């Protein structure tokens, strides 16, 4: 049986002025104070009903001394590699760190996280494009986040991922379900152009940068999330809304575990086009599709509303779909949408973990001949 420890250590490593101290303080105390107080910070956390101490060790150098001993001893449970998105040089050091971890210092939990700080400055001062850390995080596989200590953006998500990993190493507790880990769901977002499909995916992923140009080819945006004690990686497929760019949409739909049908609350024409996109889903009819959600965007423009809430709700109820209204500007309802989709995916059993890779395989029982297809949104 696995041993329950009282203390877990996280090594927080990065160059100067990347924000390590503020990052640790924000998580441990919830507020920011001036001055360096490290290198140790700690916080008591409840993991599967067991109170543990999470110790954060801050260092600028990834060497033997960082672990308090020679290589192979006093190894941390997890490592966070931090860079500043406004300073390209802070990111260039990380490749060396990643190689040294791979060769000498694999953390106990096998968990290394890549974190870009100061995302609140992304609009005006970004120097490290998201694609660069995303590529680096694939070899070896790292979890990737962008955070802001100033606004407290996604800091709790980073440590929650570590806590969930610790929970999987513990023996199951009486009455507490052991979390599932590293499951992947694919969510395809479709709808007319200009309804906010890209903004929805970017807001949920935590990227504060917005791209106002039209989507031409499907794009993948990934986010690791924890819902009800389970860890998931969501692959969000952002598709083209303009008809001349929609040739690839059917191939993307075939991979979907869930589909978001999106329209604008301030443009009735986009609501009328839902049938067109719904028919695309029906034509492809992937066997692994479990959930479809109808989503009205631009709730922040209530005074310009053209489509009433009841109309969207009736349309969704008619087809047995989920229904939510959101704002990609204020983020209202965005997290609720994807958390609800995940919960519906969980209750759309059976699913099993594959023997290779992280993606799950969803299994449907064959339908008897002559019977209509079952609605895939029912638990």
List key phrases describing it:
379 residues; Rossmann fold; six-stranded mixed β-sheet; 28% helix; 24% strand; elongated; disordered C terminus
Give a short summary of the structure.
This protein is 28% helix and 24% strand. It is an alpha/beta fold. It folds into 2 domains: 7-169, 3-Layer(aba) Sandwich (Rossmann fold); 184-348, Rossmann fold (3-Layer(aba) Sandwich).
Please characterize this protein's 3D structure.
The chain is α/β, with parallel strands linked by helices. It has 2 domains: 7-169, P-loop containing nucleotide triphosphate hydrolases (Rossmann fold, 3-Layer(aba) Sandwich), CATH 3.40.50; 184-348, P-loop containing nucleotide triphosphate hydrolases (Rossmann fold, 3-Layer(aba) Sandwich), CATH 3.40.50. Helices cover 28% and strands 24% of the residues. The protein has helices at 20-29, 88-92, 94-103, 122-125, 131-136, 155-169, 197-205, 249-253, 268-272, 274-284, 309-319, 334-347, and strands at residues 7-14, 40-47, 50-59, 78-84, 111-117, 143-146, 183-190, 219-227, 230-238, 258-264, 291-297, 322-325, 351-352, 361-362. The strands form 3 sheets. Strands 2-3-1-4-5-6 form a 6-stranded mixed sheet, with helices on both faces. β13 and β14 (361-362) form a beta hairpin. The protein is elongated and about 60 Å long. It starts with 6 loop residues before the first strand and ends in a 17-residue tail after the last strand.
